[in-house]
């Protein structure tokens, strides 16, 4: 099971993540609502543990935004606010459960397990374009009915491109979402991974889908959708 922990208190986040990892969960940690929004959009999580009081956009607003975009991942809200009106506000915004600080780790763990049992996590919608499909949960990618063997980075890049099909995705966005803080020689890394991904996804006789928009980034679209947009030349080489 994979959990996204969104908590601005770095020490608390580190302790919670370590405890959950010791229980066998895979835990990704971010410290702002904006980072959490990006992660929840790209990765299929089984549960989101969300602190209410975050810098900038708060957890309540993030939860509302996720629900409005159709995110069905269970959300456990953490907060020092313990009034009835606060609990009601959290639940009405889309949180599935509410835990007030301070709390015992055993109680957090019990609530996490209860949410996972209760939800059985609605299977994410399979992303598709033409004869290309990607299942975020099973991480299975098909092109023309054939299974593609992608690396972790290739899968992450393709998932971002599919979620923004028809749009130009910048190099900086790929760098931030796929490589996080490991940005050494990132342009060369992106080029290498795009080249490898294109060789697998666009292997003949399949029609090419991955387009390079010079000076702007990359786009996933049928070849006839990449021309005449006025957004720069698209290339497949």
Summarize the structure.
This protein has 237 residues and is α/β, with parallel strands linked by helices. The chain has 8 helices and 12 strands.
Explain how this protein is built.
Residues 227-237 have low confidence and may be disordered. 28% of the residues are buried. Helix 6 packs across helix 8. The chain starts with a strand and ends with a strand. Strand 1, helix 1 and strand 2 form a beta-alpha-beta unit. It has helices spanning 10-22, 33-42, 59-68, 84-93, 105-119, 152-163, 171-179, 186-201; strands at residues 2-6, 26-30, 47-51, 75-79, 97-100, 127-129, 132-135, 140-143, 146-148, 210-213, 217-220, 234-235. The protein is built from eight helices and twelve strands. With 237 residues, the protein is an alpha/beta fold. The strands form three sheets. Strands 2-1-3-4-5 form a five-stranded parallel β-sheet, with helices on both faces. The chain has a four-stranded antiparallel β-sheet with strand order 6-7-8-9, covered by helices on one side.
């Amino acid at each position: 099971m994979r959990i996204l922990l969104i908590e601005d208190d770095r020490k608390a986040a580190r302790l919670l993540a370590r405890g959950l990892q010791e229980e066998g969960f895979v835990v990704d940690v971010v410290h702002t609502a904006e980072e959490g929004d990006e992660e929840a959009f790209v990765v299929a999580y089984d549960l989101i543990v969300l602190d209410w009081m975050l810098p900038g956009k708060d957890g309540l607003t993030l939860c509302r935004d996720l629900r409005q975009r159709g995110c069905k991942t269970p959300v456990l809200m953490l907060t020092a606010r313990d009034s009835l009106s606060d609990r009601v506000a959290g639940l009405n915004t889309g949180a599935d459960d509410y835990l007030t600080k301070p709390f015992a780790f055993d109680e957090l763990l019990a609530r996490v397990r209860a949410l996972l049992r209760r939800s059985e996590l609605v299977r994410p919608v399979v992303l598709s374009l033409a004869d290309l499909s990607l299942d975020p949960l099973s991480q299975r990618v098909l092109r023309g009915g054939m299974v593609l063997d992608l690396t972790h980075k290739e899968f992450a890049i393709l998932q971002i491109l599919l979620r923004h099909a028809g749009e130009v995705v910048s190099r900086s966005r790929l760098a931030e979402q796929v490589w996080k803080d490991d940005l050494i020689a990132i342009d060369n890394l992106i080029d290498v991974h795009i080249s490898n991904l294109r060789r697998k996804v666009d292997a003949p006789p399949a029609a090419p889908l991955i387009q390079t928009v010079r000076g702007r980034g990359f786009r996933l679209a049928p070849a006839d959708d990449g021309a005449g947009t006025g957004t720069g030349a698209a290339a497949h080489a």
